[in-house]
Amino acid sequence: MRVLIAAALLIAASGPALAADGRLLAQACLGCHGPDNAGASSTPGIAGRPAAELVAQMNAFRANERPGTIMGRIARGYSDAEIAAVAAHLATEARR
After folding, report:
1. Distance between CA atoms of 53 and 46, rounded to whole angstroms?
2. Strand partners of residue 40
3. pLDDT higher for 52 or 1?
4. Quick one: average pLDDT of 1-19?
5. pTM score, two decimals?
6. What is residue 78's three-state secondary structure?
7. Top-confidence range, 4-13, 16-25, 67-76
């Protein structure tokens, strides 16, 4: 139990560090957006898109201004800093 508590505290304390690591945060996108975030089935590719476009889309999902099956719920789970970090990282990924 002590190990779990210590791990939770370390994760909580690393929040700002995680926000700065868009590469790590973008790993969550792979499940739907496919390998290398290049798109999968009907889910569009997001790798290589301009960071400003990705930030605008995430903010639109978060504000329920853009329809989506799950993206609104996902976007509401990210801070502005995390969205910016993920967008900056995805913008540098190669498009396929």
Report:
1. 10
2. 43
3. 52
4. 54
5. 0.75
6. coil
7. 67-76
Q: Taking CA 58 as the corner, what is the angle to CA 64 and CA 49, rounded to the nearest 5 degrees?
A: 140
- C-alpha 88/C-alpha 67 separation (Å) is 23
- Residue 93's alpha-carbon distances to 12, 16, 34, 46, 96, in angstroms, are 28, 22, 13, 9, 9
d(CA 79, CA 85): 10
Q: What is the CATH architecture assignment of 18-92? A: Orthogonal Bundle (1.10)
8-state DSSP, 20: H
Locate 63 and state its tokens.
Answer: 């504000």
Q: How far is CA 29 from the centre of its chain?
A: 6
Q: What is the mean pLDDT of residues 5-27?
A: 64
Backbone angles phi, psi at 26, to 5 degrees: -70, -15
* 80-55-86-68 Cα dihedral, nearest 10 degrees: 100
